[in-house]
Amino acid sequence: MDIWIDRTEANWLDPLCRQAEQIFRGKSLPSHDHTHHTRVWNLCKTILREIATFNSRTDPSLVDGVIIAAFFHDVGMAFSTREDHGKLGAELCRSWFRDTGREHPVRFTEILLAIELHDRKDVQLYNAFSRTTPPEILGILSVADDLEALGIIGVYRYAEIYLKRGITLKELGNRILENVKIRFENLSAGCHLCSRLINRYRQEYNELCFFFEQYNLQLAGVPDPERTLTGRLGVINYIRRHGHHISHNERVHNEVTGFFIKLENELDQARM
Description:
Elements: H1 2-24, H2 34-51, H3 60-72, H4 85-100, H5 108-117, H6 137-148, H7 151-164, H8 169-190, H9 195-200, H10 202-220, H11 231-242, H12 254-269
């Protein structure tokens, strides 16, 4: 598997990174830009290595398919943050191959389907985590994307996208908690053969849940939520106004500053 991954990265990594970066150039969506796609690919590599320990029905075309799907799955968000952005991503992938004249990889149809459907969670996703079933791109991509949405990076990811979708401060905490709990329960049940991997991310799951549980408590106790600049609510208001870069021209509460310093550190590690 390591040999296949090295070969795949030599062939695909640089052009895919450049394409994703170009698509997001001039766009303001730091939580899902080209760096998000790199982090998801890094998680995909971990999953591929894990699957290879219990399923012998892997092959190089799977690895090629996963890296291409990983770098196109959310590029549609550069144009729309709606839940159907996967369809846009699939079209952008198809266009890239057409415009560059690159030969379609073996699993091209499966790649396009994985990009389009990566946000639809159902039992079939976990076919990739069987001892006997040939692994599928969609399952690997979706699990990597779910894991990338945990911890402090997940706090930022969820907050930015949900706010852009018009979800109010009052709704935000409960909507995120509901979504992430369902996702992690499905991961824990469906990926039991990857229990070591899932357990590594349990702490990040707990960290994300604790953040929004505390957010909900703070929200219930303040008279003017939109003007609150301290605590977890202060973090969300800062994301709502500025993204994740601390402005040196604005006084920011120490707790909020600490969150973004930790976030930048986690982003720098790129889920390696």
